[in-house]
Structure to design on (453 residues):
């Protein structure tokens, strides 16, 4: 419950951070966009003033000449003078489109402004929009209104375009008003470049927070796992210690009984039981002490050249005798004349732990096969059983200290979760590695790989 609460709180905090950073970047974007539009408008207005003062032109002189000439021709045509209703509306649209074309094609203000901006090292390219407000034809002081724009009657609110100026012109045969707009074609790229540092810093802060949260959450899970392992170890250790202590206590009370005191065989049997359980208790205590020693000091075995074949055969033979026929142990050892650098005591402990686990977790018809061979500059020692196997989710933790699979038949087996931990420590100290192949219900194969001498 606590872990889910922390996860939910962390995700909520990250979402809030992303929302805040997005809002801040959005505000910076809008601010830079506004400044960019103001800058371009000011430069365009300055450019227009410069052209009017220096060159006595606003860039539309030619367009106005063509429009006036065209207007005079329209006024003389029968289509305009004799049309009415829908026919007249069609003529008006044709005339207006032609006027728009002339304004666009015959003007040279856009070229002048582009050169002016480039000369003053203002980044970006511009596109032009000419928006007609009204257009009238004039015939002998009679005005024929062809067009009145709603944008002229109602102020235009398009923020993406920059209004440079509103032009008005009246000549012999026409009267016109239009707005001249420019738009920055690569506006987004310019703004993105300007806010790149802010955007990178914002993204970096989000990534850092997410990574910190992931690391903190992983540490929390790891601490939880270690806490569970510690609890399991204490429970297992308590159970393991209680068994010999209870047996010794019961055996001690048995020796006080009159019928036992008078029976020499019972006394000897009880004494042997006490001795056996005392040995077990002493082994458990020594095991716990060894853990403390291994954690406080560097694990350094006394390594020396060892003929590995005879040592391995001796270990298997001794273990086979100790099982008293409860398990079938077969072997295929091909290590004649080969030598490794090893501490015989720790090497024996390692193999014994693997064999012990193979038998312990193979209920019923227990069969263990030991295979050893050399390949290149390494030897391979594989111990295969027909036991209950280990699931994929447990295999990555199986060599951790105190780790035991907490469900299934394994839970019913005694142990402190230290056997495979010792195996891994010993193999690493010998410069080797240990590999595991296992499937639930199909047994396990542990392979120890050590370098040759």
């Amino acid at each position: 419950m606590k872990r889910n609460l922390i996860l939910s709180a962390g995700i909520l905090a990250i979402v809030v951070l992303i929302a805040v950073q997005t809002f801040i970047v959005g505000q910076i974007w809008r601010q830079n966009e506004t400044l960019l539009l103001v800058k371009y408008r000011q430069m365009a207005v300055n450019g227009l003033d410069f052209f009017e003062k220096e060159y006595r032109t606003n860039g539309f002189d030619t367009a106005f000449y063509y429009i006036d000439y065209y207007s005079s021709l329209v006024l003389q045509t029968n289509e305009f003078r004799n049309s009415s209703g829908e026919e007249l509306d069609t003529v008006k649209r044709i005339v207006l489109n032609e006027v728009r074309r002339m304004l666009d094609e015959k003007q040279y203000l856009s070229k002048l402004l582009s050169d002016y901006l480039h000369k003053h090292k203002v980044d970006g390219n511009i596109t032009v929009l000419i928006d007609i407000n009204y257009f009238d034809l004039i015939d002998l002081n009679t005005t024929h209104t062809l067009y009145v724009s709603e944008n002229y009657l109602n102020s235009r609110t398009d923020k993406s375009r920059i209004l440079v100026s509103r032009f008005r012109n009246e000549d012999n045969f026409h009267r016109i008003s239009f707005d001249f707009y420019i738009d920055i074609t690569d506006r987004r790229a310019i703004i993105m470049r300007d806010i790149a540092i802010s955007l990178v810093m914002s993204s970096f802060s989000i990534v850092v927070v997410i990574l910190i949260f992931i690391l903190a959450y992983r540490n929390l899970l790891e601490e939880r796992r270690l806490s569970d392992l510690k609890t399991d170890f204490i429970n297992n250790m308590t159970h393991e210690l209680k068994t010999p202590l209870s047996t010794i206590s019961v055996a001690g009370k048995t020796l006080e009984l009159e019928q036992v005191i008078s029976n020499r065989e019972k006394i000897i049997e009880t004494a042997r039981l006490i001795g056996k359980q005392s040995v077990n208790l002493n082994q458990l205590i020594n095991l716990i002490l060894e853990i403390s020693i291994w954690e406080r000091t560097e694990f350094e075995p006394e390594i020396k050249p060892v003929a590995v074949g005879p040592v391995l055969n001796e270990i298997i033979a001794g273990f086979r005798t100790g099982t008293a026929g409860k398990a079938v142990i077969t072997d295929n050892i091909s290590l004649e004349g080969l030598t490794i650098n090893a501490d015989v005591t720790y090497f024996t402990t390692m193999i014994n732990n693997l064999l012990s686990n193979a038998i312990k977790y193979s209920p019923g018809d227990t069969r263990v096969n030991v295979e050893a061979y050399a390949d290149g500059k390494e030897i391979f020692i594989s111990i295969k059983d027909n036991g209950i196997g280990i699931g994929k989710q447990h295999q990555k933790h199986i060599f951790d200290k105190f780790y035991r699979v907490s469900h299934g038949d394994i839970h019913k087996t005694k142990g402190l979760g230290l056997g495979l931990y010792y195996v891994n420590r010993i193999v690493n100290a010998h410069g080797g590695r240990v590999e595991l192949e296992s499937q639930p219900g199909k047994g396990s194969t542990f392979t120890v790989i050590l370098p040759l001498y």
